[in-house]
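Figure 2 data, in text form.
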Amino acid sequence: MKHVTIYTDGACSGNPGPGGYAAILMCGSAKREISGGEAETTNNRMELRAPVEALRLLSEKCDVEIYSDSSYVVDSFNKGWIYSWKKNGWARKDGPLKNAELIKELYELCSYHNVKWIKVRGHSDNEYNNRCDALAVAASRSAAQDITPCITPSVTHDDAVRRREYTGELYERKTAVTTAFKGRIFDVEVADVTLPDGSVSKREIVRHPGGAAIAAIDGDKNILLVEQYRIAADRIMLEIPAGKLEEGEDPELCAARELEEETGFRPSYLKHVSTFYPTPGYCTEKLHIYFTDKIAEGNINRDEGEFLHIVRIPFEKAHEMVLSGEINDAKTAVAVLAARAYV
């Protein structure tokens, strides 16, 4: 993990009045200076803004030492004030918290990095603190003259958060669920959820019982596929035999049943090769994939309203068609790729 040293300072003429902030970032032999200002602000706001803008620039998690001459900023962390403010919903026990949005962002940035705060004496003999002070004062004067500051940050708080690697909690908590649709094959739910950062959102979930499918190879090393029209894709697709699981049904029995019903062949044995979620972003469907290269004649028994053609393709050709995208049904692609180890 990289080690970064940051010096920060803020300045304000009038408090409130025109103000400026500055920071110097050092990592190995690299060094960068930043500064900016606001036409109407406070000294504390500029002292907070300096480390916020500096930490925003770090594109990966780092060990960071921040040097500041602001007791307000350093003590917020070293004396634990900021943790009490967070616990109180970014407020003081006795009333509103000034600069709450900057304090919250600074807390989030520091929570991502490993940050150590170090208090330095202002206007002393510290080279980098004095340089930050000069940059902040210059930015303050520019703001007072309505001149564009040295650096005007273009990254918003939300943008800065999204551009950092996230290492926190992942689970979402459902707070309410309603059924929006009940169908013959699936139901649709709408869930209210609390996200890991405490914000709320909605999730639309398709409740599907799952299915089973089978890659069956005949004695000539052809894979048995079916060709049928799929209305959602609005095209005729090549697929391995597959079907929906009935309530409590064993996926292996479902795969064997679908092979016979759709192609007229029964498997002499089955080998499980994969179980996967085709679209976990919004659907609960889980597909179980099986393989067999021993089949015997059985009886076709298509479902009502099911129209399909049986197609035999050399397995290696089917593998090439998956890789080229000519076969683009997800379960068939997974099955062919997984079955190649056994053909």
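Caption note: Residues 127-144 form the longest helix (18 residues).
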